Amino acid sequence: MGETITFWVLAVVSVGAALGMVFNRKAVYSALMLGTVMLCLAVLYAVQDAPFLAAVQIIVYTGAIMMLFLFVLMLVGVDSSDSFVETLKGQRVWAVLAGIGFATLIILAVGNAIFAPEVGLAQVTAQGGYIRSIALLIFTKYVFAFEITSALLITAALGAMVLAHRERLTDKPTQKDLSRARFLGDRPSPLPGPGTYATGNAIDMPALLPDGSAAESSVNRYIARYDVEHDHLPDDPRLAEAIKHRAEEDADEREIAPRAEEQDAEAEVRDAEETPNEVTK
Amino acid sequence: MESEIAQITQHTGGVIGNAWLMIAFPLLGAFILLVFNRLTDRWGHLLGVAMSLASFVVAVLAFFELIGLGEAERRRAVHLYEFIPNLDINMGLLIDPLSISFALLITGVGSLIHIYSIGYMAHDEHRRRFFAYLNLFVAAMLLLVLADNYVGLFIGWEGVGLASYLLIGFWQFKPSAAVAAKKAFVVNRVGDLGLLVGMFVIFTTYQTLSFAELKPIEVENGTTLAIGLLLLLGACGKSAQLPLQSWLLDAMEGPTPVSALIHAATMVTAGVYLVVRSGAYFFPEGSGAALAVAIVGAATLLAGAIIGCAKDDIKKGLAGSTMSQIGYMMLGAGLGPAGYAFAIGHLITHGFFKADLFLGAGSVMHGMNDEVNMRKYGGLRKYMPLTFWTFFIGYLAIIGFPLLSGYFTKDGIIETAIEHNQVLGWLAVLGAGITGFYMSRMVFMTFFGQKRWAEDAHPHESPTVMTVPLIVLSIGAIFLGGYLVLSNRLLLFLAPAVGRPEELPTFHFVSVPGITTLALVAVGAGYAWVRYAQAEVPVVQPRGSFVTTFARRDLYGDALNESLLMRPGQWLTRIAVFFDNRGVDGLVNGLAAGIGGSSGRLRRIQTGFARTYALSIFIGAALLTGALLLVGTI
Amino acid sequence: MTTHYLVLSGLLFAIGAMGVLIRRNAIVVFMCVELMLNACNLAFVTFSRQVGNLEGQIIAFFVMVVAAAEVVVGLAIIVTIFRTRRSASVDDANLLKY
């Protein structure tokens, strides 16, 4: 009875989390949902006489793999949320149809199957207990496969290093190079800081120039975009106008950026972003 | 019938046993000159001459060894090696009076022309190659006449065809020479086809191609008539007889020594050799095949003579004359054993005086900056006396001036012809008269009359290396005919090989045909004297009558070939091309276009979107699962 | 209970597959693949208990190892692609086509 309750609770949670993972726009949320599913599964393993696997599931999947996913998400850009407009014609319809069809088929198959009474693992683990039995299998019958997995892991680690490593083709720019670039650019001075007002001193507030107009460049364009997308615009129409304008500039740049495919160009962009002064090309 | 020919017996040892050296020497020469190429540029011509002379020496030694044997034993076969064991065809040489006569002519005259070429080709940068081809020709021609079976003969036959092609086109930078070479080659192929098919019929009928195993026949039947006509076709191709005569005049594009050696003295006589060699087997006396040979000969001798009358190019005039003289030989070869002897006799003397004439013409051209138009000669007698006298001797010999070579052999043919066939005989007499005219015209235009030279012409006598062969040849042109014909020396010598006539002919110095011939020749020569020595010869060719144009155009032989063969061939080709383009290509291209089009549409499936591919995989997996379930429930 | 676990496994697998087909963010697609693998593992474990054989669990264990290796390499590839193309969308890498 306890198992049944556990199952139903966890089944509902895991299916809901899985659906949430698929249908959430934000990759970070998806990752968290996946973590939920994995934890549920770990409990289900434990319930089904597989405590070793439950531990491995939590340590390897929820611990290591999910962390890796989150790291990569940070690296690739947390802000990049998917747009939900489907570009491939019919893809979504067919995908849902196929998914439902497949699930139906599995359910039909499993439902039609006639299972013998559960044997349980009590018999096989009677001698020496559960962990010993698992160890016995891994290190005797499957020792060869086990050794091969070690080779696989080493290869994967090496492969990841090779793939993620970036060869530096040019010298790292020195301070001199950077300042030269800055002075050759259209803006030698640092960008103005955000404005400080009685009503707010947030980083998304444009500063005012001596003539009273809003300094667009004082707002980070990503922040401006966020503000526009989430309707966090300040009440003052002048400032709101400046933020909107800044967000439009950002949109224009994003149009262009993906086309710059060369690594060098990419490096320059990143270098420029690293510097506090936005030395754009 | 007394036309029995002697049995062929096997021979080993001695010079005859090593007669293959005759072929090997020039072949080795050609091999060295062609393989070592530029390395031999300096002494290549000397090697060529030496190889030819060595071959001549072997031929002379073999000749003396042969006449040392009894008359009935003078047909010696020398086995060399098994050639095509499956068909029981062996390669061997047949040394008999006929082949040795040819071998002596080929190597003797050939050597003289080799020597002459040293001087004639002195300024040609490819002289070494020229000698290589000449040596190749000599080797092939010797194989042709010495082989003891039709296969060896055919190999030599094709070999001389090749050498002829290479030498006509020797100056291949001239388009006319290249075209002439091609024409000679193509026309010869027609003849070769006849020879080849003839050989096939012989082999299927008798299961052999060896002269030793073929049996002489007395009475003709359908098969031998067919074989005879096919061989005659081959002979016509090689010997430039009607209707395959058209290549010979163009062949004069080659260097003059080539014209002398190949297209006058030796190669073009291969057809006569073929007919005479096959005479006992397929052209019995009085047979239809033999009559065809004689008719072809008579027709060609007239055609050649008429063409010779109209040509202003000295070499083409001589080429027409060659056609005509070979026509005489063919006529003789169609008359049985008595005719054979005169035909071969005329062939040998013709080899001398025609080579003499050609080399003389070459000497004139050499002195006149390679000018060939006789209208631009005139009065050269005083400027190149040696050339003039040797040429003049050749001229007298060819028109049959009494007691010179041509007189004996040509009269022999004419009288034998009249004995056998009045019509052909008197046509030959008429031909002799025309010969008197056109040869006199040639001599008078070249050596007599006023000077009509080009402005930069400085005629001079040729170097010794060129005149000595002329002198040797003209000596042959004077005496050889009498020596061979009087007391039937050649006839008796050849008898073991070609048979002996029922009664030996005696040579009549005074006879009706002889006197008539002489009278006609005199009339022709006199007319030529009036027109070309006394009257002024226009430098520019006058329009001439219809007959003249007819002759100038080679009796419209080329036009005939063009309209009968070339145009229909072209139409056939066009139809084939049309069918190929529309039918075959249409099918293939249509298929290709269909596949291309459908694959062009099909490839649109490959969108490059990984998700699309994943979807198809997933749907496939779902369908597969469904199928498995379905199978499971059933 | 076996049936329940298996149905849950099938549902999770189908949801993961749908996610692979619907999502464009390469990382999310990758997560969905992981979900499918997990669904399979659940089936293995369930069958292991059903037939009373530990080998199902061993296989599930190996699947986890392989999945770990796969994630490492896969994510490295995604990072590399993102670095060169400034995009983690699977639809942007579509040059290999007709």
TrEMBL record, chain A:
<feature type="compositionally biased region" description="Basic and acidic residues">
    <location>
        <begin position="173"/>
        <end position="185"/>
    </location>
</feature>
<dbReference type="GO" id="GO:0048038">
    <property type="term" value="F:quinone binding"/>
</dbReference>
<dbReference type="InterPro" id="IPR001457">
    <property type="entry name" value="NADH_UbQ/plastoQ_OxRdtase_su6"/>
</dbReference>
<keyword id="KW-1133">Transmembrane helix</keyword>
<feature type="region of interest" description="Disordered">
    <location>
        <begin position="173"/>
        <end position="197"/>
    </location>
</feature>
<comment type="function">
    <text>NDH-1 shuttles electrons from NADH, via FMN and iron-sulfur (Fe-S) centers, to quinones in the respiratory chain. Couples the redox reaction to proton translocation (for every two electrons transferred, four hydrogen ions are translocated across the cytoplasmic membrane), and thus conserves the redox energy in a proton gradient.</text>
</comment>
<keyword id="KW-0812">Transmembrane</keyword>
<dbReference type="GO" id="GO:0005886">
    <property type="term" value="C:plasma membrane"/>
</dbReference>
<feature type="transmembrane region" description="Helical">
    <location>
        <begin position="6"/>
        <end position="23"/>
    </location>
</feature>
<keyword id="KW-1003">Cell membrane</keyword>
<feature type="region of interest" description="Disordered">
    <location>
        <begin position="243"/>
        <end position="281"/>
    </location>
</feature>
<feature type="transmembrane region" description="Helical">
    <location>
        <begin position="28"/>
        <end position="46"/>
    </location>
</feature>
<feature type="transmembrane region" description="Helical">
    <location>
        <begin position="142"/>
        <end position="164"/>
    </location>
</feature>
<dbReference type="InterPro" id="IPR042106">
    <property type="entry name" value="Nuo/plastoQ_OxRdtase_6_NuoJ"/>
</dbReference>
<keyword id="KW-0472">Membrane</keyword>
<dbReference type="Pfam" id="PF00499">
    <property type="entry name" value="Oxidored_q3"/>
</dbReference>
<dbReference type="GO" id="GO:0008137">
    <property type="term" value="F:NADH dehydrogenase (ubiquinone) activity"/>
</dbReference>
<dbReference type="GO" id="GO:0016491">
    <property type="term" value="F:oxidoreductase activity"/>
</dbReference>
<keyword id="KW-0520">NAD</keyword>
<feature type="transmembrane region" description="Helical">
    <location>
        <begin position="52"/>
        <end position="73"/>
    </location>
</feature>
<comment type="similarity">
    <text>Belongs to the complex I subunit 6 family.</text>
</comment>
<feature type="transmembrane region" description="Helical">
    <location>
        <begin position="93"/>
        <end position="115"/>
    </location>
</feature>
From TrEMBL, chain C:
<keyword id="KW-1133">Transmembrane helix</keyword>
<keyword id="KW-0560">Oxidoreductase</keyword>
<protein>
    <recommendedName>
        <fullName>NADH-quinone oxidoreductase subunit K</fullName>
        <ecNumber>7.1.1.-</ecNumber>
    </recommendedName>
</protein>
<comment type="function">
    <text>NDH-1 shuttles electrons from NADH, via FMN and iron-sulfur (Fe-S) centers, to quinones in the respiratory chain. The immediate electron acceptor for the enzyme in this species is believed to be a menaquinone. Couples the redox reaction to proton translocation (for every two electrons transferred, four hydrogen ions are translocated across the cytoplasmic membrane), and thus conserves the redox energy in a proton gradient.</text>
</comment>
<feature type="transmembrane region" description="Helical">
    <location>
        <begin position="27"/>
        <end position="47"/>
    </location>
</feature>
<keyword id="KW-0472">Membrane</keyword>
<keyword id="KW-0812">Transmembrane</keyword>
<dbReference type="InterPro" id="IPR001133">
    <property type="entry name" value="NADH_UbQ_OxRdtase_chain4L/K"/>
</dbReference>
<comment type="subunit">
    <text>NDH-1 is composed of 14 different subunits. Subunits NuoA, H, J, K, L, M, N constitute the membrane sector of the complex.</text>
</comment>
<feature type="transmembrane region" description="Helical">
    <location>
        <begin position="6"/>
        <end position="22"/>
    </location>
</feature>
<dbReference type="GO" id="GO:0050136">
    <property type="term" value="F:NADH dehydrogenase (quinone) (non-electrogenic) activity"/>
</dbReference>
<dbReference type="GO" id="GO:0042773">
    <property type="term" value="P:ATP synthesis coupled electron transport"/>
</dbReference>
<keyword id="KW-0520">NAD</keyword>
<dbReference type="GO" id="GO:0005886">
    <property type="term" value="C:plasma membrane"/>
</dbReference>
<keyword id="KW-0874">Quinone</keyword>
<dbReference type="Pfam" id="PF00420">
    <property type="entry name" value="Oxidored_q2"/>
</dbReference>
<feature type="transmembrane region" description="Helical">
    <location>
        <begin position="59"/>
        <end position="82"/>
    </location>
</feature>
<dbReference type="GO" id="GO:0030964">
    <property type="term" value="C:NADH dehydrogenase complex"/>
</dbReference>
<keyword id="KW-1278">Translocase</keyword>
<comment type="similarity">
    <text>Belongs to the complex I subunit 4L family.</text>
</comment>
<keyword id="KW-1003">Cell membrane</keyword>
<keyword id="KW-0813">Transport</keyword>
